[in-house]
What we know:
Elements: E1 6-8, H1 17-32, E2 40-43, H2 45-53, H3 63-78, E3 91-97, E4 108-111, H4 115-125, H5 128-146, H6 151-164, H7 175-193, H8 201-215, H9 219-227, E5 238-244, E6 255-260, E7 272-277, H10 281-286, E8 292-293, H11 297-300, H12 302-319, E9 323-330, E10 333-341, H13 346-358, H14 364-369, E11 383-384, E12 394-395, E13 397-400, E14 403-409, H15 412-420, E15 425-429, H16 437-442, E16 445-448, H17 456-464, E17 468-470, E18 475-478, E19 483-486, E20 489-492, E21 496-500, E22 505-508, E23 513-514, H18 520-532, E24 536-540, H19 544-552, E25 558-562, H20 564-567, H21 573-581, H22 585-610, E26 614-618, H23 631-660, H24 674-694, H25 706-711, H26 713-732, E27 738-743, H27 749-770, E28 777-782, H28 785-789, H29 791-797, E29 800-803, H30 805-813, H31 820-823, H32 825-830, H33 844-861, E30 866-869, H34 877-885, E31 890-893, H35 898-910
Parallel strand pairs: 14-15, 15-16, 16-17, 24-25, 24-31, 25-26, 26-27, 27-28, 28-29, 29-30, 30-31
Antiparallel strand pairs: 1-2, 2-5, 3-4, 3-5, 6-7, 6-9, 7-8, 9-10, 11-23, 12-22, 13-17, 14-21, 18-19, 19-20, 21-22
Helix pairs in contact: 4-5, 5-7, 6-7, 13-18, 18-35, 19-22, 21-22, 22-26, 23-24, 26-27, 27-29, 29-33, 34-35
Magnesium ion (MG) binds at residues 744, 783, 804, 806-807.
Amino acid sequence: MSKKMVFSFKEGDGRNKHLLGGKGANLCEMTQIGLNVPPGFVISTEACLAYLDSDSDELPAGLMDEVREQMKAVEEATGKGFGDPENPLLVSVRSGSAMSMPGMMDTILNLGLNDRTLQGEIRQTGDERFGYDSYRRFIQLFGKVALGIDDELFDEEFNKVKESAHVTEDVGLSADDLKEISQRFLKVVEQATGKPFPEDPYEQLEIAVKAVFRSWMGKRAVDYRREFNITPDMANGTAVNVCTMVFGNRGNDSATGVAFTRNPATGENKLYGEYLVNAQGEDVVAGIRTPKPIDRLADEMPRMAREIEELRQKLEAHYHEVQDFEFTIERGTLYCLQTRNGKMNATAMVRTSVEMEREGLIDRRQALLRIKPEDLEQMLYPRLDPNARVTPLAQGLPASPGAASGHVVFDADRAEAEGRKGRDVILLREETKPEDIHGFFASRGILTSRGGKTSHAAVVARGMGKPCVAGAEGIHVDVMLREALVGDTVIREGDLITIDGTSGKVYLGRVPTVEADFSAELNILLGWADEAARLTVMANADTAVDADRALKYGARGIGLCRTERMFNAVERLPVVIEMIMAETAEHRRQALDKLLPMQRQDFQELFEVMAPHPVTIRLLDPPIHEFLPSEEQLRDDLQYLYRLKESVRGMEVLAGTMSLLGEAGSLPEQPVDSHQVEEAIIKKETMLKKVRALYETNPMLGHRGVRLGITFPEIYEMQIRAVLEAAMACDRKGLEVHPKIKVPQVCTAQELLFVKGIVDRVSAELEAELGHRLCFQFGTMIEVVRACMRADSLAEEAAFFSFGTNDLTQATFSFSREDAENKFLPLYNERGILQNNPFDVLDEKGVGKLMQLAVRWGREKRPDLLVGICGEHGGHPASIHFCHRIGLDYVSCSAPRIPVARLAAAHAALCEDC
Ligand code: PEP
Ligand code: MG
């Protein structure tokens, strides 16, 4: 017997999303838990794949027979007949894959209508206007979705009738107007396809099913899957849901709406949504009429409001998750048409996690696992500076929080093109449609002049964590003229604006922003994460200000302080240059003596901020020529100085001549004399010589890291002294500090031994003065391949290893970290030669293997060896999972990634065996 392809809502397995799609499985589940779902059935994703795999345009054999059988059951349940001219059964046809892909596939409503059934529908409802309204909607949707006819052809006819009827709102159209529109639409179809509109309902259904199946491979769906990495094991093919139509446009006791069981922007435990009286579902989603907030339903239809509240409770109690559901009220009966897990922004996810745990709906593990770590970064997004004195230009609905500034673009293609150039853009549309999705990816924020908080723009922007202001009705968009009018103000394409998705306000120009705050709920959630995690999360921070921020985000120490950043400060650079220019060790020491108190001060501040957490200081790493001007710059400066010297000389000669003429004093005094210029020239020439002497073909593989420390030991000695003296000063103040000194670019234990010799000498000196031992550790960066291979012998000298995976990736692939990302890596990714950018996502198979070996060999020699990572990968969730698996003790990353890393570390621990 061949495999069953069609399942009624009463029999489908609600857990089998792969087979029935998310929506279909839910319809089955909702039906089976006793919610009022209109009768219907689901055609499986397997049928979709079989259709797409076959060479013909025929549906799989036997599928339509199963459909007819199921349709009979629906006819029995509703007492109506599919194609029955007396009492016609109308259905909706919707797509739905295993993963929620909002707006990606197309829906057809009112299928089953034709010239004859329409009359039956009119007789049954006694409402001619309603009948023709349903018909014209069906013809347009079917024409667009199933027959591929351009929407605009229908819109043109629609607007013509609207104009001649002198109405502005669709509700103002009479039955005759709608009849006229239906007839015009039938002609549009006939002209576009060369065939009359299909009359037979089963033929309509067959065409519609095929169209839904094909939409799985449509551009929108394919783009969406690629962007969100939806692989075939996650979702393969779309199911088709065929469901009895219920009508929200049957008069003032009917309505339609969409709602979330909790607020998807804030997480507040309160029904959130919108509805329209006497309207169909698509009116809400498409933003054609601006809907009313759901709170108002209690006044307009109190019994329905109570039933929806009950529905909300039932949904959450069953799904243990916030639900995003669609409902229709037909003549005082509430139907639930769809439910799915609500897409929320990070703020709402965090709040609902904490609150649902408290309400006993979910446990802590679920509370942590339902949030994607990388989404937490959204919560650190900037918001408008409350002190900015600005007047909004327009007001819309706060549809997705956060603030963004950018140059206005009026269509998605332009947004994509400008975004590719690296420009910040805001996509401004009357309303958005699924085909605009590529514009969303490229934009900093979305602004629409129509539609509500559940319009397409709002839902998609929220899912992406991008700010969105929707329904700013004061803005009149003219795409043809590429401008928008707000009162007398014209916004032209390219103009800079700022949108605030938290307040719904729109501003001209760029408004300053401030950093976001940590919410109390985020702190609670991350506290749970820390309890669950085994990895400790530390920060890459170079200054006390960075450290303070990292601490606020929950860092348990500093895993990497790059000391060269301190050398670059304006007041220090001249001293650093003096140190580099020194020709003798003695001169170098004099310059270093000036740097010592500065570095000591830096370290002391860091220790004080982080106490009692550890602070890991890396000794100087980059090639020292990086602190000097470039050769080109010096040559330009010299050219200028040579010219200046000539001019100054000329002026001096002129001044002398004037005195001979007895005209002394008539020339203004010279601001510089030729000796000063001469001195400046000598300095620059000496520097140029030094720069040329320091020149290296491959500086990243050259005189840097510990190699510098060995050739100029006085530099490392100054830094080591500064660290230990700062620790001593803290110790004297009674502060518990744990400095760690690490050496960069080490490839042999001999290098470590050399530096350790300095550390031992300096610490012995200071400890003698202090009278007791200083508490500090000495360790090494592991960032070259040989260091991994010699991990056992390095572990004899080092108390800790810190993987510098930026350099280790460079060294393992032999890809320059400076150039690979903008030269060939994008092409490598595009062609599938490499799946990811290895500088972003840790290459587990190569770099990871080396790390694994180094951890094993290092711990064999020193079982209590502490091991961490401080390359960029330390803040990447998948890489953090890997670090957990190979037994690292900590990850260290930049401040804004710390919350992400804390949650990822918890996920890694919680998912150890899942
Ligand atoms: C590394 O190489 O991973 C590292 C942390 O050092 P840097 O990026 O400073 O070279
Ligand atoms: Mg490095």
